[in-house]
Amino acid sequence: MSRMTKTLVVAALAVAANGCSNFLSGDKLDSDPNRPTTAQASQLLIASQVNSYYILNGHAARVLAMWMQQFAGTDRQYRGYDQYSITEGLFTEYSSAYTGGGLIDLRTIQADADDAGNRVMSGIAKVWEALVMSFLADMYGDASYSEAIDGSAHPQPVLDQQAAVYASLQTVLDGAIADLATGQGSVGDLDLSLGGDAVAWGHVAKTLKARLYLHTAEVNPTAYQQALAQLCTGAALSSCTLGIQSAAGDLNEYHSGASGEENIWWQFIARDRDSYMRPGKFLVDLMNTRNDPRRPEYLQLNGNGTYGGAAPGEGLNTARHSNLGLTRLDPAYHQPIVTYLETLAIIAESAYRTNNLALARSAVDALIATYGGTPVGGISGTTLLTRILEEKYIALFQNYEVYNDWKRTCYPNLTPASQAYGGNIPARFTYPIAERTSNPDNIPVPGSQPRRNANDPVSSLSADGTACKGQKP
Amino acid sequence: MRHLTRLFTVFLAAIVAAPGAMAQQGASVTGKVTAAEGGAPVAFASVVLAGMGLGATTREDGVFSIAVPAARVTNQRVDVTVRAIGYQAATQQVTLSSGTVTVNFTLTVNPLRLGEVVVTGAGTASSIERLGAVVSTVKSEEIVKSNELNTVQALAAKAPGVVVTSSSGEPGASSFIMIRGQKSIEGTSQPIFVVDGVPVDNSTIVTTEPTAGTQAMNRMSDLNPNDIESVEILKGAAAAAIYGARAGAGVVLITTKRGQSGAPKWNYRVSYSQDEVNKDYPLQTLFGQGSGGVAATCGGPGCRLTGASFGPRLAPGTATHNHFMELFETGNTFDNSLSLSGGTDRSAFYLSMGYTNQDGFIVGPNDEYDRFTALVKGNLELNQKLHIGATVNFADTHGSFIQKGSNLSGLLLGGLRTSPEYDNRTYLDPVTGLHRSYRYPEPTATSQYDTRGYDNPYFIIYELQNTSDVGRSFGNINIDYAPMNWLTLKYTLGTDYSSDARIEGLPPSNSSQPSGSIDRANYTVFQVDHNLIAQATKDFNDWTKTSLTVGQNLNSRKYEQLQVRGVGFISPDLFQLSNTISSNMLPLDYESLVHLESYFAEGKVDLWDQLYLTAGARNDASSTFGKSVRRNWFPKASAAWEASKFMNIRSGQGMLSYLKVRAAYGETGREPTPYQVFSGYSVGQFGDGWTVGLNNSQNGSAGIFLAAAKGQDALKPERNRELEFGADLAFFDSKVDLGLTMYNAKSTDVILSLPVPPSTGYFSQVQNAAELTNKGFEVALNWRALTTPAVAWTIGAQYAKNKNKVTDLRGSDQFLLGGTFNGGIKEGYAHGVFIDWDFARCRYSAESNVVDGFDVNAFCHANNAPDGAMYIGDDGFPIFDSEQHVVGDPNPNWTGSLTSSLNLWGKLNVSALVDYRDGGQIFNGTKGALLAFGAHKTSEIRGEERVFGSTWLPGPVTGPGVGKSVVLDEDSWFGNLGNWFVGPGSQFIEDGTFLKLREVSVQYSINAGWVQRTGFSSMDIRLAGRNLWTKSDYTGIDPEANLGGATSSRGNEYFNNPQARSIVFSLAFNR
Q: What pTM, to 2 d.p., does this model score?
C-alpha cells in the first residue's frame, strides 16, 4: 500500500513538474500480465488435440449418435435434439475448427515445426488439420478453407465447395504421409494418442484418406477404388498393410481420471447431464437380436436386469433404459477417432463395391473376429453388403462416421424420430450464428442454406434395397 | 468479528459514561431548530457564529450547543446563522456573554433549495440556482427512513431517472443502480461512486458465474447508511463531465457526516426487523413423480428416478409439500449505530460505529450478513488560511450465502422441481447418513461421490459453505489552503482498499461436482486518487462575477484475484484446498492495473445575479486507451437563468412564485476494460457448454492456444454526449414546486467485442463500434398540502421516462450479453431485449421467413393473416422457428413514485413511498423449466383439451390447424415445445409492471421529562415496513429479480432466490 501511495505521490509531483508523464506506462500497464504473448509449437499441439476432441467427440457427436439412434435424448433439450428440434445455434464446431486450438494454431505448429526441421510434428499437425476440416466438410458441406485464417487479406472468407475441400485434404494428407515417412524430428509425449509414433500416424493418415474417398462415393464413381487403393496393394487382406494395422495403432483420444482430463462422454452422461441421454432402442434391440458379445462393454443392465434402449424422445425410465456400459462410461476411457475396425470395414465395403467379394468377406471376418463373433461364411450380394454396414454401425458405436455412412447408404434404414424436418433425418448442420452474422455475404440465412450437402444426394433406396425412410426427396 | 463486537460494547459503555459536555467556562450558545410547518425538529442543521469560525450541527431533536471559549467572549453581538438542506437559511443576532445564551430557530422550507450549496464533484461546489444541469439530492433522513442496509438500495425510488434493483432479498445481496438508461454494452451501466471527494469501489464480484453460484455484495454496501449526510446524483453528462472518462454512466457523490465544534453529542439507533419472503410460488400438487402417467418407482438402494412429475394423479389424502414456502422462515435483522461528534473552536470530530447482524429468510443459519463499520473524521483549522482534515472509513463484513440460479446445486432449481409428494426435509438418508434427493431417494453406502441429479435443497442450505469475508478501509486526507481571499487550493489524497476472502464449497455428493469442489479466492481492490485544484474568484463589477477552477487528477486502480478451485474432496466435509486431490486444482488468478492522468478546468460567470454560465473541459489519458488515442477531451457547457428575477418575482410569492430555465451540454466517457488493446494466447479450458470441460494442458504437458479475441491498439473510450433542458418552477406561494428535465443522450464509440468470422481464426475484436441513444423526460413535483405550525403534509411525485435504442452495430447482427440466457443487443431495438427462439409466425418485416423448408410469409400473404400471427400446423400445434428473434424488452416504459409525509405537532411523522414501474418484461425461465418437469401449477391441466390462439397462448393465429382442439400432455406439449428446454423462450416473456409499497413508517419523538431524566434529550420510536405489498401480474418469483445480479442485462428469472418484505422497529436515543 505504502509503495503504491508513494509511487503515486512521486508520480504526481513528477507530472506536475514535467508536464509530460510516464505515469501511463510501466509494468502491467504496457502489457497484459494475465496472458502469454508467445506460444511454442509443442504447447499449441497439446491444446489443439484437446480442441479437436471437442469437435469430434463433443456435442455434435452426441447429437449425431441420437440421430443414428445409437442413443436417445431422454431429458430436456436432448429430447428435442433427438426429435430434430434444432436451431442454427446448435452446432458451433464450425467456429472452433478455425479458432484457437483449431486451424489457426495447427498451421502455426506446421510452420514452426517446418522451420525447426521437425517433420514428424508437422505431419501429425497436418493429420489433425485433415480431421477437423473434413468434419466441417462432412457436416456443413461447403466450408471456408482456401481463404480461412487470414483475416487481413480475407476478413470475410468465402466458402469453398465441399468437393474442393475434400480434394485439398487429400493433398494435405499426402503431405503428412511424406513428412511422417522421413522420420525426421520427434514429438514424443506431446502426441497424446500415439506417443509420436510416425509409422502409426502414417497408417492413420492412410485410413483417413480412404474414409474421405468414401464420403465422395455417391457422386464419384471411382471413390471405392481410390479408398481401397489407400489401404491395400493387392487383392488379399494380407496386402492391406497401408492403413491402421491393429487396435494398438488406433487414433484414440487421451483421457484420465484427473479433473479436466476426463472423457467427454463420461462428463456428459455420468457427471454433468446424467439424465439427458441413454443408449437408443434401435441399437440395443439390434444387439439383443444378435446376442452381441459387446453388450457388457457398450451397455449397463437396466433396472429390470436386462438390456433396453430408449426410443427417440422418450423420457428417462431407468427401469427400462440401460445406461452406457461401464467400460466406456469411464473418465479414463480413450474415445476412438480413427480405428483398425474402421479400416477393416472400409476395406470390406470398398472390396465389395469393387467386386472383390473374397477380400470383402475376409475383411469383415477379421472385424468380427475382434469381438469373437462367427465368420460370415459365403454370403454375397446385398446380404454381404448390409452385414458389412451393420458390423460397421455397431463397431463404430458413438463415432460420427456412422452418420456419414448412413447419409451415403441409408443403412440401417432408420425410421425418423419425428415429422420435423419434413419427416427426414437432418442431412447436414446449419452454419453457426457466429459465422453467419459476421460473414453475411458468404453464409446464407438458414432458410436459404441447402437441405443436403453436395456429396449426399437423396438415397431413395437403403443399401438393403428397401425404400429409404429417412431421406425423402 | 467477535472481538470487534466486544470493542463496540466497550466503546458504547465509554460514551454513555462520558461527562455531558466539555469545558464550560465561556459562553454556550444553545437552542433548538424546528420546522415552521409541522414543528418537526430539524436534525443535522449547521449552526455557525459568524466571523468566529465556530459552529455546531443540530442533534436528532433539533437541539444545538456551541461552546465559546472565555477568552473570546466580550459581550459582543454576533450573528447566529442556521442552514439545513431544504430550508431557507435563518440568522439571528445574540449578545455573547458568559453562561448560556439561548436562541431558537423556526425554519421555513426552501422548496427548490435556492441558495443552498451542493458538491458538484472533483472538489467543486455550486449553489443550486446556478446549476445548469439537474443534480438530484437525497437527504440523510430519506436514507435512514428507507431502512436499507445497503447504501445503493437506499436510493431506490428517490430520484427520477435513477433505477435501483435488488438482486434478491437475501442478506448481503447486491443492488444494481442505473441512471437514465443503458449507455454501454460490455461495460457497466452503473455510475461511479465518490465518497467525500474520493472515487471508491462499488464492484460486485461473483465467485463463479453470475447465473449460478451465490449472491455477491456490491462494495458500496460497506458504507453504513447512517453515516451519510447527503447524496448528490449527477445524472447527465453535463453534470458528470468533470469526471470525464469514468462518468459515462453518471456519478453518485456521497458526503459523510462531519463533526462541528460544540459540546459532544451522540446518537444511538437500534433497529430490529423481521424479514420474510414476499410471495408464494405456484407449484403443481396433483400429480406425482414419474413420466407418461406411470409412477417412478425405486427398485432398491441406488435407483435413479426421473426428475419429472408426470406420474399418475396422486391418491386422495397423499401428503404433499409446498416445496417453495417450506424453504423459508422469518429472518431477523439487528442494526446498531452509534455516533459521537463534537469539537473545540478550531477542531471537530465525528466518530461512528455500526454493527449489523442479519439472519436471512432462508431456513437455517447459513444465509447471514454481519457488518461492523467505523468512521472517524477530524478537521483542524491550523490558521485562518489553512485547514486540514482526514477521514477513515473501516468496514469488516461477513456474508454467508445459499447457492442459486442455473445450478444443479441451486436452492430452488432442485427444490421447485421436486415432485409434490416427496419430503425433502429429511435430506440425509436414515440408513446411510448420505445425501438423498427425489431423484436419488435411497443412496447406497458407496454413493458418497455420486451425483444426486439435483441436490436436495436442505442439503444445499445446511451442508454447503459459501462465504465472503471482507476487510475494507477507505478515506482521505485533505488540505484547504487560501493564500489570498480570491484563491483557494484544495488537495485530496484518497485511498480505498478492500480484501475479500471467499469460499465456495460444495461437499461430495453434490450434483454439480459430485466428488466435491471448493473455490478459495481472495479479491483485492486498491485505489489511490490524487486530486489537486486551484480556485480563483473575481468580481469584475456588481453584475459580473466569475470563478475559475483548474485541477489535476491522478488515479491508480489495482485489482488482484487469487483464486484456486480444488476438485475431489479427501475428507468429506473439510472446506480446504489441502483437502482436495492436489492434481485436480485449477488456478483462476487474474490481475490488472489502470492508471489515469487527467487535467480539468471549469469557468463560471454570473451575470446580473440571474444568469449563470458554466463551461469546462477535462482531458483524460488512461493506460487502457490505445497508444495512438491516449488523450481524450470531455467538454461541457451550461446556462441557468432565473427568469423570475427578471420578472421581478423575488419573494417566492404569487401564483408563479419562481421560474428558472436551464440548458446544458456535456460529454462523458467510459474507459475500456484493461488490456483489450493487446493480443495474446490463452491458457483457459475447452468445453462445449454442456460439460465442465477439458484443461488446456493434459497428461502433464502444457498447452496453450490463441485467444479468441484479437487485440485492438486504437481503442478509444466510449463517449456519451448529452444535451438537457429543464425548468424549475414554483407556484401558489411556493406551495407547489416542479422540476422538469428532458435530455437527449447519444453514446458513440461504444465498445463491442465485434464478432469476426470464426473462419478467420478469431471470434472477435473489440471495436468502438456501437451507438446507442437514450432520450428521456423527468418530472419531480412536490406539493405542500398542509403548512400549519402543527401540521405539515407533503406529497411528492416523480416520473421518469427513458427511451433507449441501439442505433448502430456497425453492420453486425446481434449479441448476447453476459449474465443472461437471452438478453441481447440488436440494431434498432432497445438495449437488453430478449433474443430467443419463437414459434413460426407471420413476419412481414423479415427478408425471408422459411421455417423447416416452408415459406411461412407466403402462406400468411395468401391467407391475409396479420403480422405476428402464429402458424398452427395440421396437428393443431404451433411449429418451432429455428431462427432467433427479438421476443421481448426488459426496459420499462416509465417509472414513477409517490411519497407522502405527514408531520404532526413536531412529534409524529407518518410517511409512505409507493414505487411504480410500467412495463419492462421479464423472462420467466423458472416457469419455462418447471413446465418441462410437470412441476409448475400451469401443468396441472395436463390431459385436457385446448385450442391454440384462443384457450392456449391466446393471440392471432393462422394455418391449417387453426381452431383445432388438442390434448396438452407430457409428450404433446409440456415435455415438448411447451417448455423452454425444447420449445421457444418467447412463450415465457411476461409483463413486469409492478406497484410496490416500498416504504411506510410511523415515527414518534419523545422529549418528555421522563426521557430527559434518563440522561437522553430525546428518543425516537419508529415502526416501519419495507416492500410490504406488491401488485403485479407477473407470475414468477418477483418482477424486480435479476438472475445475473448487478449485470447490465436485466429481467432474467431462473430459479433466483426471492425478494423480502420486512417490518422494522427502531429506537433512537439522542443526547
A: 0.84
